[in-house]
## 1
Amino acid sequence: MSTTLISLNRKAAEFISTPKKMLINGRWVESVTNETIETRNPATGEIITTVPNGGVEDINLAVAAARKAFDDGPWRMMKPNERAKLLLKLADLVEENGEELAHLETLDNGAPVNVTKYYPTAAADDFRYYAGWATKVTGQTIPVSIPGDIFNYTRKEAIGVCGQIIPWNGPFLMAVWKLSAPLATGNTVVLKPASLTPLVALRLGELVQEAGFPDGVVNIVTGSGSIAGTALTEHPDVDKIAFTGSTEVGRQIMRSSSINVKKVSLELGGKSAHIVFADANYDQAIANAATGIFTNSGQACVAGSRLFVEKKIYDNFMSDLADYTKNFKLGDGFDQATNLGPLISAQQKDSVLNYVDIGQQEGAEVLIGGNTSERDLEGGYYVKPTVIANVNNNMRIAQEEIFGPVISGIPFEDIDEVIKLANQTEYGLGGGVNTTDVSKAHRVAHGLRTGNVWVNTYNLLDPASPFGGYKQSGLGREHGSESIDMYTETKSVWINLD
Ligand code: NAD
Ligand code: MN
C-alpha cells in the first residue's frame, strides 16, 4: 500500500479488503461464471480489489428482478410519499457515510480528496431534490373541444425498467444522477458502472439496501461495456436506457436500443468553447478558463477545451494562463496538497499525450505541460496541465475530445466571428464567456448551440437546473423538471360522462 493511503478512511479500507459482489434482487452475488475484473488505483497503478465480471446471464437476472419489482412488486403499489421517504433516508445515509464514499471515489478514480469531499453533500442534495418531486408529479385536466360531455386528463406514469450506464470520470455523482430521478418517479433500475470505477456504485448499493428499498428496485451489475452494457441495451424487457459516456458508444446504444424502441437519453462528449473578451475581468477570466479545463484533470464532458481569446489580449492571456498552471499541484489524490489528480489509466495518459504530439505536428505551440518526469509520480498516470497556443479551430486538437488537462488557445477578432467558430464543432455541451459587457454576454449565451452556458464562471451545476447537450453531445436533459419528463410516460385518459 502506498504511503498516501495511510490516511484512508477505516470503513473504505474495510470495504476494499474483500473481493466485491454485485447487487441483484436484493442479494450480493458473484457473476454466474465466477469471473472477476480488477479495479486499480490510478495514482499508483496498484490493484484495489476485484468485482464480478457480469455478463449476459447476470444482466438477464438483474433485468428479471427489476421487471418483477416493477410489474408485481411492492414498488408499483408504493405511495409517492413512501418513495420520497426512502430517497430522503438514502440521502442521510450518503452523508453519514460521506468520507468513506469520497475516499472510495479518490481511490478508484483518482480525483483528489480535496475535491471528492464535496461529493457526498452534492449527492445528498440530488436525492433530496428528487425526493421532493416524488409527491409533485402531476398530470393535467384538459378542456377538449369535441362534442359530448367528455372529461380528459393526463397521468404521468413511470416508464418501467431503466438500464443506467455510466462512465468512469465521475462515478459517484453519475451513479446518483442515474438513481435519483428514476426512483422518484417510480421506475426500477439496473445500473452498470464503468469497469474502471465500480466501487462507489457498489457501496451506494449497500446504502440503498440499508435505506429499505424493496428487493429488485435497484440492481447493480459490474462488467464490461461490450458484454454487460450491450446485453442491457439489447434486452427486450428494458424500457429505457439512460447513458452517459462517449459519443461513439452513444451512437452504438441508439442502434441496439432500437430493437424494442427503448426510450433513450444520452449525455455524451464535448469540445466546449470558453470565450474571453478583452473587456473581461482579467484575473477572473484566467481562473475560469483554468477551472473549465483542469477540473478533474480535464476528464470532464463539459471541459472548456477550446479557449477563444480576443486578439488584442491573446499573447498575454496565453502566457499568464501558462503561468497560472503552476498553482496546480499534481499528485496522489490522498495527499491534502494535491489539487490535480492522475488520469484514469495508462491508456488515457497515452491518448492525451498523443494529442499533444498531434498538436505540435499541426503547427501549434506547447507553452507549458505535457509529460511528467517527476520521480515521485512514477507508477501513476499523470499528465501536467498543458497550455497550447497558436491553434486554429480546424486542427484535430480543436475538434476532437482529448479528455485530459489540455487547453487549446485560438485568437478571435469580434463577437460574430467567435460565435461562428465556437459553433463549428460536432458537439454542443457547454460553453463559457468572460466579459463585463452584459449585452455581449447574452448575445454569446444565445448564440452558442450548447446545452449549458456559463458567464464569468464555469462548471456550475445544480439538481434544479437542466443539464445536457445539443447536437452530438446528447439527447434529453437530466436534472430539474426535465428529468421527470424523461423518466415518465404521459397517458391521456378519456371519460364519457354522458
Ligand atoms: P465510454 O463510452 O467508453 O463508456 C461509458 C460506459 O458505457 C461504461 O460503463 C462502459 O462500460 C459502457 N459501454 C461501453 N461500450 C458499450 C456498449 N457498446 N454498449 C453499452 N455500454 C457500453 O465512455 P468513458 O470512456 O467511460 O467516459 C468518457 C466519455 O464520457 C467522454 O466522451 C465524456 O465526454 C463522456 N461523458 C459525458 C458526460 C455528459 O454528461 N455529457 C459526463 C461524463 C462523461
Ligand atoms: Mn479504478
Note: The chain has 18 helices and 22 strands.
## 2
Amino acid sequence: MKFFVDTADVAAIAELDALGMVDGVTTNPSLIMKSGRDIHEVTREICALVAGPVSAEVVATEADAMIREGRRLAEIADNIAVKVPMTWDGLKACRALRNDGCMVNVTLCFSTNQALLAAKAGASFISPFIGRLDDINLDGLQLIGDIRIIYDNYGFETEVLAASIRSANHIAECAKLGADVATAPPDVIRKLVQHPLTDRGMDAFLADWAKTGQRIVA
Ligand code: G3P
C-alpha cells in the first residue's frame, strides 16, 4: 500500500520523505488555508520535493471553470494530480483533464455508486472519506472494502485512495481491505510506530545493558 501525506506542510512532508514514507501528497483548500501559503508556491515546492503524485484541488463548481483551474494547476509540475469534487461537473472535468493526459483524483466520495461513476469517468484516484462517514455513524471502512470488490469485479484501474484517515487503525484496516493508497496526516503516520510492548521492551533492554557497564562504541 502506498502512503500519501495529507498536508501542505512542507517541513512535515520532508521529514517523512527522508524515511521513505512518502509515495505522494494530497492537499485540499482547507489544508492550503492551514499552511497560510500561496497555493501555487507551496504546491510547486511540494512537487519538487516528492516524486509521486501531488493532489491539488480545484475550487470552481462549474465544469468549464474547473477544467481551466485544473489545467493551470497541472502546469505547476508533471506530478500534479488535479483533484475535482464528486459532482456531475467534477466528473465532466475529470473526463476532460484525463483526455489532456493529467492525473485526476475525484474527491469527497461517500458511496460505492459515486466510486463507480469516478472509475467510468477515467479517474486516476477515487478518494472515499472514511473519517467523515464514521463521524455520522456510518462505516467508512466498509466503503473501502465495497469499492475494492466492485473495482476488482470489473477491472477498473482507478486507484482506491483512502482519505479522511483519523487513526493508525484506519491505516491497518485499509491495508487489509486492499486500498491502493492511504492518505493520512503526518501525525497519524508518525503514530504507526507506536506500541506499548516496544516501549516496555526498550526500557528492559536498556536497564539490563546499563548493568553490564559495556559500550558498543568506545
Ligand atoms: O484530503 C481530504 C481528507 O483526507 C480530509 O480529511 O480529516 O478533514 O475529514 P478530514
Note: The chain has a mean pLDDT of 98.
